[in-house]
Design brief:
By secondary structure, the protein is of the alpha/beta class. It is about 50% helix and about 10% strand. The protein has 21 helices and 12 strands. α6 packs parallel to α7. The longest helix has 27 residues.
């Protein structure tokens, strides 16, 4: 039965007049029914055309403490800039952050969720168009009507396998996430499948016990034993960068060299982690920004009602960032590698050639022969080049005076640092501009392919100074010539 509740104030008084008989009331009700039906048709037509009545208000549950979250946010904001303006309320799960108990009370018209499973109850109660940028395993049961935009874990596994195969590795392994998430399993399956296609097998470190899952020291002990049992060299794909860093730490604990014994590749390209390890960590970068962009596009379709059924979309790999941890090394002499590591760790201290030779466990003469064979220069040159690389970093990234920088880089005094800098670069030391200029030894024109091969051969060690000497040695050994 039609109710008069909400009837226009202009018409409602007609229904209460004493002279208004049944005929008049019937005509008025008939007119109201037609009017409401027409309004309904107009609204339905607008919704079918995907036209918005007001600015969308979107709640974004997104932790930005990791690169993945920040890149996804960039993709979302790029979509909003290029297309429909949104009002966005960002919840990052920060300490002291104000919560949003009821998104509908705020006037929300849509929700985006990424890596914040604690928000599931709030999202489910809101019953709004929702897109999740995360694994289905965490959300699908509680959010059956949500759409998903997630990383293509199989593409990551295939990309990792191809990366190692192109570099000539023949032994492979995978280190799964300690929590055994579905995406970690999918990455392993694709990685192993691609290797099997190429005629190789893949070892797996997984099945982490409950105690190992909560106590890294216990997990590390078993991981160290597993790493020692692997054939050498072995190329390892870790489920993500944090796991890869744990593997790197364990290799150092077990006395294994990276990359000569274990070549290592992570996932996510978390810059803070990857650029601040020794050696630096190679990583697969999923296209998180494209994922954020597609999630925003999908949510807008749901809010406009041009799309009514839940969707599942995937984004692929953007690039693989190759760093020191995955570059195959033709240098297998452990004595030389120990010397290089010792210099890298202690270049800021007052060390000399005898200290390096003692750590290598050989005579001073043998130590010099090994460095000239593999590095193309003396131990003292390596120490100075490593110190100069550190000095350049300070010049570029700090405003500290040269005198203070010199002491932190292992030089005797400011004059010593300036003299060595000019000796190796041909320029006076005094500013970040000098640090950015090419070295005098790099004036030769090198063939790009030879430089690529050279980097994989041994360019991962040292500082990059004195490149001509090492480059000449490499070209002679491998039959290249200058161009």
């Amino acid at each position: 039965m039609f109710s008069v509740r909400g009837v226009s104030p202009c018409i409602f008084p007609l229904l209460t007049l004493p002279w208004a008989g049944a005929w008049v009331k019937g005509k008025v009700f008939h007119l109201l029914l037609i009017t409401h039906y027409l309004l309904f048709l107009i609204r339905y037509s607008l919704s079918m055309k995907g036209l918005l009545q007001k600015t969308p208000k979107v709640v974004l549950f997104l932790a930005t403490n990791e690169k993945a979250g920040r890149d996804k946010l960039q993709g979302i904001l790029r979509y909003v800039r290029l297309h429909t303006p949104w009002t966005i309320h960002l919840l990052e799960n920060r300490i002291g952050e104000q919560k949003l108990g009821d998104p509908r009370a705020w006037g929300a018209t849509g929700i985006l969720v990424a890596r914040m499973p604690d928000s599931i109850r709030t999202v489910a109660d809101a019953a709004l168009p929702t897109v999740v940028m995360d694994s289905r395993l965490l959300y699908a049961e509680r959010l059956p009507h949500a759409s998903f935009v997630t990383s293509d874990s199989s593409a990551i596994g295939y990309a990792g396998a191809d990366f190692f195969l192109k570099r000539g590795f023949t032994h492979f392994a995978y280190v799964a996430d300690a929590e055994a998430w579905d995406w970690s399993t999918l990455r392993y399956q694709a990685f192993s499948e691609r290797l099997q296609q190429a005629g190789h097998t893949c070892e797996l470190y997984g099945n982490v016990s409950k105690l190992e899952r909560v106590d890294w020291s216990v997990d590390q002990q078993r991981l160290a034993r597993w790493l020692l049992e692997l054939p050498k060299p072995t190329a390892i794909l870790a489920a993500h960068d944090r796991r890869a860093r744990q593997v790197l730490e364990t290799c150092q604990l077990a006395g294994l060299e990276v990359p000569s014994d274990i070549a290592l590749l992570g996932v996510d390209n978390e810059d803070i982690l990857c650029e601040n390890t020794t050696p630096t960590l190679s990583s697969i970068l999923p296209d998180f920004e494209a994922g954020g962009y597609e999630a925003a596009h999908l949510l807008e379709q749901l809010m406009r009602r041009t799309l009514r059924t839940p969707q599942t979309l995937f984004y692929g790999v953007k690039q693989i960032v190759s760093r020191e941890s995955s570059r195959p090394s033709l240098i297998s002499d452990r004595r030389f590698l120990k010397g290089i590591e010792f210099i890298r760790l202690n270049s800021s201290e007052n060390i000399g050639v005898p200290d390096v030779a003692e750590h290598m466990g050989v005579s001073r003469r043998m130590a010099e022969m090994l460095f000239r064979r593999f590095a193309g220069h003396s131990i003292l040159d390596e120490i100075r080049q490593t110190r100069l690389a550190r000095l350049k970093t300070f010049l570029l990234e700090t405003a500290l005076p040269i005198g203070q920088i010199s002491a932190q880089c292992g030089f005797q005094n400011e004059m010593h640092a300036k003299r060595v800098f000019k000796q190796y670069t041909g320029r006076p030391c005094g500013s970040s501009a000098a640090a950015l200029q090419p070295d005098k030894n790099n004036a030769l024109r090198f063939h790009p392919q030879i430089l690529t091969d050279y980097a994989d051969w041994g360019g991962w060690h040292g500082s990059g100074f004195g490149l001509t000497t090492k480059y000449t040695k490499y070209t002679k050994r491998h039959g290249y010539g200058f161009v």
